[in-house]
Amino acid sequence: MSYVSRRTFTASLFSTLVPAFKVSAQTGAAYPDRPIKLVVPFPPGGGSDFLARLLAQKMTDTLRQSIIVDNKPGAASTIGTDAVAKAAPDGYTLLLVVRDMGINPSTHASLPFDTLKSFAWIGMAAVGHYVLVVNPSVPANSVAELAALAKAKPGSMSYGSLGIGSLGHINVEAMKQRLGIDLLHVPYRGAGPALNATVSGEVAVTLAAITGALGFIRDGRLRALAVGSETRISQLPDVPTIGEAGGGADTLLPTFWGFAAPAGTPQPFIERINAELKRALALPDVEEKLTQNGLVAAYSTPGALGTAMANDIAHFSKLVKSIGITPQ
User: How many CB atoms sit inside 10 A of residue 69's CB?
Assistant: First the structure.
């Protein structure tokens, strides 16, 4: 993974864009010559949706064709992901990749696509850290106090996640294992619904992307107990890391996002979208909005994203087995 450097951006962008303006042998038209659909495998309202819409807007400006965000939530992101895997490899259907894709091969007995072979990787876009939050009615101001409550009444306290097998689910289960506590898992169809359920008190706890939770924390509708980061983050400087809080430094792993297309998408099209992604992430206002929402620009080449996904599949296979989650 390599972060965008403004110093080298201008020179590298020119060389990246040169092959991207090749004429399509299939259509005889310069790519793109019509709107592009960007599938987000989660519902509106969460960090994935925010990032997709921000980048779609900025990339539209120079592509001179609209990038239309299409939310297709469900089944721990596999419904939307499958839709892209089966789409025509013509450059007009893209996928917002989420780190959950590296978990799904271990939590699903079977998938309707091959995570590594069904996609053409475009590049990494951003990294986001999680924050462990509770409804203010929960009498816990720290991870230690939350653990004490859970141990006093095992299974009586619930936590919401954006779906079975999601990174949020796996992270909390890893934290539960480390702390020796029992929390009741309540899956939702996305980060937004899980977050709203915690705000309303329907569930007591959730692990949320900072993007979606920050506003609720600041206005007092959620209480932050820990962040899943190696160091404290600037948006929540008074909130300890999960390692400092005693929950295990490796239990709340960060998420990442990237772009992919159906396997077989022409390489010049991949290069064009990669170049536009790189350009968008280097814009000062994009950097500012990402920072405000707890995200970090993390541009990468197509190959780097493919390597990250392959490494995650191996890592989460071991983690899922150690936690004891049965593939379904």
Answer: 18
Is a pLDDT exceeding 60 seen at residue 7? no
Residue 179 tokens read as 């702390």
| DSSP letter, residue 234 | T
Question: In the predicted model, what is the mean pLDDT of residues 68-84?
Answer: 92
Q: Please tell me the distance from the alpha carbon of residue 53 to that of residue 293, in angstroms, as a whole number.
A: 14
Q: Which range (84-93, 211-220, 257-266) has the least confidence?
A: 211-220
Please name the residues in contact with 314: beta carbons below 8 A apart, sequence gap of 6 or more: none
Left if phi > 0, otherwise alpha if psi is -120 to 50, otherwise beta: which for 190?
A: left
> Token pair of 243, please?
């390692």
Residue 178's SS3 state is helix
Q: Does the CA dihedral 239-309-190-174 come out positive or negative?
A: negative
Integer Cα distance of 8 and 124 in angstroms: 18
CA–CA separation, 274 vs 253, rounded Å? Answer: 26
Query: Which helix (H) or strand (E) element contains residue 206?
Result: strand 205-209
**Residues 227 and 233 sit within 8 Å (Cβ to Cβ):** yes
Angle (deg, nearest 10), helices 284-292 and 47-63: 170
Is this structure's pTM higher than 0.85?
no
pLDDT class for 9, splitting at 50, 70, 90?
Answer: very low
- H or E element: which one contains 158? strand 158-161
Q: Domains of the chain, with CATH numbers?
A: 6-128+254-323 (3.40.190.150), 130-227 (3.40.190.10)
Instruction: Read off the pLDDT of each residue in 72-77 and give the average, rounded to a whole number.
Output: 85
